[in-house]
Amino acid sequence: MRVLITGATGFIGRHLVARLQTDHEIYALVRRLPTQPHPAVRYLQQDLTAPLNRDLLPTHLDAIIHQAAVIDTP
């Protein structure tokens, strides 16, 4: 399966990628590219607060798992 994960570099997202990467083709939609990228992941850089650049996305996806969040610290 081709799976797109938003928030793939966050705490839950990293664990999800580790769990899914052996059986699935993983695309990670991230705000910033990671300094230590996971070798089995294709990273797509996109700020989710901006309009989506659909040209970045693969032509076919089987699932989208949305893990991204805006975190406001007081």
Blueprint of the fold:
Layout: E1 2-6, H1 11-20, E2 25-30, E3 41-45, E4 63-66
Parallel strand pairs: 1-2, 1-4, 2-3
Description:
With 74 residues, this protein is an alpha/beta fold. It has one domain. It contains 1 helix and 4 strands. It has a 4-stranded parallel sheet, covered by helices on one side. It is globular.
Helix content: 10-25%
Sheet with the most strands?
A: 4 strands, parallel
> How many E-type strands?
4
Average pLDDT reading = 90
Uncertain stretches: none
The span between the termini is 40 Å
Beta-strand content bin: 25-35%
Number of domains: 1
- Helix run count: 1
* Backbone structural class: alpha/beta
Oligomer type: single chain
What is the compact description of this entry?
The chain is an alpha/beta fold.
Give me some keywords for this one.
single chain, 74 residues, alpha/beta, 4 strands, 27% strand, globular
